[in-house]
TrEMBL record:
Signal peptide: none annotated. This is YvbH-like oligomerisation region. Residues 148-205 form the YvbH-like oligomerisation domain. InterPro entries: PHb (IPR012544), PHb_sf (IPR037063), YvbH_oligomer_dom (IPR021722). It comes from the Bacteria.
């Protein structure tokens, strides 16, 4: 505790700040946003070493080796391919100088400390991430139901006497084509690429 307080007092800890929308273009992560494809920044947290840029499509992490190094590694986590879970928020205590938001995206765990003066803004980010997590959980459930339904349909279509006058090769082709089309349509229905509508509910830029 005392070491942490001393580090905060000396400015040695990596406590982040929330970047205002008018200053997004001054950040490194802004250079890597896919504006050409409709990507939009909703929230940026900047620490001495890192930037965490939340867009409608992805989390863009500008990962710094240390606060004194200029070397950066860009990591992108698209929501479409990386599930979001275990979102939590640790609020500031009486003597704490920071709040902490935690989450897992894909297989990567994040724990970000932010100056408690931004606590209200971080609550809005927390609500956004929790809502996205809930949508992803529902999508996973619907996809499982979808696969169970498909399995039942395949068993029925491939059962003896269900060829409807087709040869085995024709029957196999029909089932395969139907399955591919159906899977694609259902996958598109239960896989979100753009979560801008969620961020718009809670974050006003």
């Amino acid at each position: 505790m005392f070491k942490k307080l001393a580090a905060d007092a000396l400015g040695l800890s990596d406590i982040g700040k929330v970047i205002e929308p008018q200053d997004y273009d001054k950040t490194e992560s802004d250079d890597y946003v896919l504006y050409e494809k409709g990507e939009k920044i909703y929230f940026i947290i900047k620490t001495k070493a890192d930037e965490y840029c939340f867009t409608n499509y992805a989390l863009i992490h500008v990962d710094g080796d240390s606060a004194i190094s200029k070397k950066r590694t860009l990591k992108r986590y698209d929501y479409k391919y990386n599930s979001l879970h275990h979102v939590s928020l640790e609020t500031a205590g009486t003597i704490d100088l920071d709040v902490e938001i935690k989450f897992v995206i894909g297989e990567t765990t994040f724990s970000i400390d932010i100056n408690k003066s931004y606590a209200e803004k971080i609550k809005d980010l927390y609500k956004s991430l929790v809502t996205i997590e809930q949508i992803m959980r529902d999508n996973d459930k619907y996809r499982n139901h979808m696969l169970d339904s498909l399995d039942s349909a395949k068993k029925t279509l491939s059962s003896p006497g269900y060829s409807q006058g087709q040869s085995p090769a024709e029957s196999f082709k029909s089932i395969t084509e139907f399955t591919n089309t159906w899977l694609k349509n259902m996958s598109d229905s239960y896989s979100n690429t753009d979560f801008g509508h969620v961020f718009d509910l809670y974050i006003k830029n």
